[in-house]
Design a protein that fits this description.
The chain is an alpha/beta fold and 241 residues long. It has a single domain (4-215), classed as P-loop containing nucleotide triphosphate hydrolases (Rossmann fold), CATH 3.40.50. The protein has seven helices and nine strands. It has helices at residues 29-32, 54-65, 111-124, 136-147, 165-180, 219-229, 231-240; strands spanning 9-14, 36-38, 43-47, 91-95, 102-107, 152-157, 184-188, 201-204, 211-212. The strands form two sheets. It has a six-stranded mixed beta sheet with strand order 5-6-7-3-8-9, sandwiched between helices. A three-stranded antiparallel beta sheet has the order 2-1-4, covered by helices on one side. Helix 5 (165-180) links the parallel strand 6 and strand 7. The longest helix has 16 residues, at 165-180. The chain is globular, with a radius of gyration of 18 Å.
Length: 241
């Protein structure tokens, strides 16, 4: 397993003079106050409410590293809709002496486009995986099992969107295998299952700044626990109103 000084990506800096004054990025509280950020664990989770900026930052880091905005390996080069922000142009990534041998940017919202591109690429070279012939969850997990391995750097954006709770446990196992073999992950998630990964660093984008948070203090954990422990009362309160 990688030590903190061996991580492929150890941090980032934001050069705000490269971002337009009227950019919407300046209106995202957690990002507007961000000058630099450090990564200290082989697995880092980014958590927070919708619109807090976590996926925006993950996308920018992945693009700045060299990945296609819609996902895939470093070799993927396609575009169906240009929607990524200018933030990647303002990032300076801090890397260690250690170089990743492989990598993948996996995002739930554009997975269909990646699966289509995979079909095209494998017609030229490789073995077609026929992702469109499988369910969303099955194809999503197939990509993970086919493309994730040792000595890699992996960016995942809300992978739980395609996976059942049981398959999320399978993903935890895949992540664990990769981490034991020298890989690093940065993951945006709302899943209390994924967030339970041992010794992961969890960074919250809530309260107007990016800050470390414990597993038990995350909204994902607290709300899920509250609902499971007192489902009837919570539903009665919500639905009666």
């Amino acid at each position: 397993m990688l030590q903190s000084n061996e991580l492929y990506l150890t941090g980032l800096q934001v050069k705000w003079d490269r971002i337009e004054q009227n950019s919407y990025l300046r209106k995202i509280a957690a990002l507007n106050g961000l000058d630099e950020l450090r990564f200290n664990s082989p697995v880092t989770f980014l958590v927070g409410e919708n619109g807090s900026g976590k996926s925006t930052l993950l996308e920018a880091v992945a693009v700045a590293y060299g990945f296609n905005p819609e996902g895939g390996t470093l070799n993927y080069s396609f575009s169906t809709y240009d929607s990524h922000s200018e933030l990647h142009n303002a990032l300076r990534l801090v890397r260690s002496f250690n170089k990743a041998k492989w990598g993948y940017f996996l995002r739930a919202e554009s997975f269909y486009n990646v699966a289509s591109a995979e079909e095209e690429y494998t017609r030229i070279q490789g073995i077609p995986q026929h992702y469109h012939e499988k369910s969303h969850g099955e194809s999503f997990l197939s990509v993970i099992q086919k493309n994730f391995g040792k000595n890699g750097l992996y960016f995942l954006d809300e992978p739980e969107a395609a996976l059942s709770p049981q398959r999320q446990l399978t993903l935890l196992l895949e992540i664990s295998k990769c981490v034991r073999n020298g890989s690093q992950f940065i993951i945006v998630t709302h899943s209390p299952i994924l967030l339970g990964f041992p010794d992961a660093e969890i960074l919250s984008f809530d309260d107007g700044e990016i800050h470390p948070i414990s597993y038990e203090d995350t909204q994902s954990y607290q709300i899920t626990k509250m609902f499971i422990n007192d489902r009837r009362q919570i539903l009665r309160h919500l639905l009666d109103e």
